[in-house]
Structure prediction request, 672 residues.
Amino acid sequence: MTATATEPGRAGATRDDRVASRSLAARLLSRPEVGSLIGAIVIFLLFMAVAVPFRNVANVGTILYGASTIGIMAVPVALLMIGGEFDLSAGVAATTSGLSASLIAWNLGLNVWVGVVLALVVSVAVGAFNGWLLFKTGLPSFLVTLGTFFILQGVNLGVTRLLTGNVASADISDMDGFAGAQKVFGSEFALGPVTVKITVIYWIVLTLVAAHVLLRTRAGNWIFAVGGDAAAARAVGVPVKATKIGLFMAVGFCAWLSGMHLLFQFNTVQSGEGVGKEFIFIIAAVIGGCLLTGGYGSVVGASIGALIFGMTQLGINYAGWNPDWFKTFLGVMLVLATVVNVYVKMKADRR
Amino acid sequence: MVTGTLAALVLAACSSSGGKQPAQASGAAQAGVADTPRMTIALITHAPPGDTFWDLVRKGAEAAAKKDNVDLQFQSDPDGANQANLVQSAIDKKVDGIAVTLAKPDAMKANVEKAVQGGIPVVALNGGIEDWKAMGVQGYFGQDEKIAGEAAGERLKTDGAKKALCVIQEQGHVGLEARCDGAKATFPDTEKIYVTGTDMPSVQAAITSKLQQDPAIDRVLTLGAPFALTAVKSVKDASSSAKVVTFDTNKDLVTAIKNGEVEWAVDQQPYLQGYLAVDSLWLYKVNGNTIGGGQATLTGPAFIDKTNVANVEKFAANGTR
Prediction:
């Protein structure tokens, strides 16, 4: 076992190739997240070369923050995609969560924490509803969650206006519990010269936990199984329904986390926010090596995808490029990252 | 014991400060109702859903509708072609008047002209100051975005600013571009940046990164109240000494001006735009009046800063400024 890694050339030559060990390099390169890692390094080097402020260590905090707000959602979305489903309601669900906490606390004059806890219930329930509807109707999750996406957009606006008479939640920064909740969801601390926002910590912890669950636990095997072939998984006793509904609820939980950040970072939540973010989460997961068909992918990759997105978005500003072309640069960067990803995977598979 | 704990929990759950105030008035100026016959007016805008600025336009229009005994049908779609369809559906419904924003004039032209030719009085508001006359629209209520931008630039100059960053939250929006261009015309050292308006954390990170990239920037000029409040956080993140100034206001922004977090705001009085648009159609229907004498009726720019914020504050608390 240990020797094979150091003798790459000869391994597998004389034995049955199904049980042959592959070289360390080949094994590394065939990991789904490797392509995105190389893409991230390329983009990092590019901006290091062209953007002076990008080289300033103190600015790392800004880039990590940009990446973390995407990454917190990209991680559960990647898990869900590996499990073979989409969630198009993930972006507006975060807005729903922030609005719920704020409106409940403000409208009833409750401690902000009560709103926070009830918002968690709402968010996880939205996830469970998505999963339930998926199995009840038998429709593709693309359609089911597209429905939820529109429903939540309307609810966000309608309920906010109904309760406050305005289209943004009222400022709750003067209410009991706000200061404490802000420490938990919207604070920051200095790590040497870098100001780290708390979302970065959540992002890293979520990535580690999700990666562990996916690669080291039975639940992780179930996720790969239901995404690869749900019927076969069911036949060998994998609880398909519970696994998928659980994944939707995980997305709900993370939507709650980002919703709380939205609320406690900005004190109010605009009811029209979050539209369009769902695709960014999916893109981050795809850059990170998730297949659109399910059954294959990585949460670490999705986090690297979020990092690529954060670096590109802010790197363009740091480089001071003509802002008219911002979206074009963004698109080209993303395509490049994905192409590198696919190329590396292809090379690795051939070995 | 259990009930005691429960009661304590329930008490602890209540907030001792803030929250909804029971005496909160619904806003709109209170007045009598006209005894003219009930009429239907469609207000068709390019507002994205859930935007605080457009909420003020709508509240102004609703206040006028209430006083004038008008059945107000508020509709909006940010997409030009869809907004034009809304005009067509208003024609189909045979409404008594149409108030419309012309932010995307080319898309709107055909249907607006159809309404005018069909004998439905049309007024324009907020956007389209260059185009409303050619379409046969009988009045315009709004500000000239270019003039407003120039006024902001002048103000930056008198404030002694060195370099300004103009934050555009919606790419390809002519009104927002005109504001930045206007500011650039009178304050040449103005740079543009595009951000995704529907994603606040990314707005914050984008402005922060720009301030880190260019420490010479000492003013951040945002084009909407929520973005000004976010820019305040970016300035702090970037440890920049830049000051934040903005177009348009809302309740929280008025508080921010009072606290000194935001220096000033260019106010175009959205409530007034909605109010005048509906009221002018009513006047035309019941008395044949038109407003503006063939010229645009400007509702701005006016500046709100520390010197006059107290006056605006009491109305902002009602959600009407």
Summary: Chain B touches chain A through 49 residues (CB under 8 Å).
